Amino acid sequence: MPGINQPKGLENINFDAVQMTKQACYQLIQCYTLKQEFQRYFDTGYVRAQNPEVQKLVGNAEGRGAGLVKALLTRVLKENPGLIPYAIIQSGAKWLGYRAGYHSHWMPLSLKIKLSSQRYYWVSKYHN
């Protein structure tokens, strides 16, 4: 940046590109519908059930999820209490999606395709 004294070692950084990257990150934040949340968490639950080593590596998702829900509700209560019902419903959709995906081994393929956000996976060579 012309005219600004930059710390040693930062002379070659393109700060315009850094700013553009920061703006792009904000623009990439996505809002999902309740159906999309359910589907995303269905996929997560399925992957966790199929790969127990992931569960061992990153820990119990449901325990961590409960902590996140508590933190979410605390923050929403402080910042916008009117959104508490939606936060509860959204958290429920995520939990139900995760549980359905985790226990989807008994489901017919047609149902898995409908509940998943990754329909192409179920008909690909990667699915058993």
Largest sheet: none
Low-confidence stretches: none
Q: In sequence order, what are the helices and strands, one letter per element?
A: HHHHHHH
Q: How much of the polypeptide forms β-strand, as a percent range?
A: under 5%
Number of strands: 0
Classification by helices and strands: mainly alpha
Question: In angstroms, what is the radius of gyration?
Answer: 21 Å
| Outline | globular
The overall pLDDT, averaged over residues, is 80
Q: Helix proportion of residues, in percent?
A: 55-70%
Q: Helical segment tally?
A: 7
* End-to-end separation: 54 Å
Architecture overview:
The protein has 128 residues and is an all-alpha fold. 67% of the residues lie in helices and 0% in strands. It has a domain at 34-122. The model has no long low-confidence stretch (mean pLDDT 80).
Q: What key attributes describe this structure?
A:
128 residues, 67% helix, mainly alpha
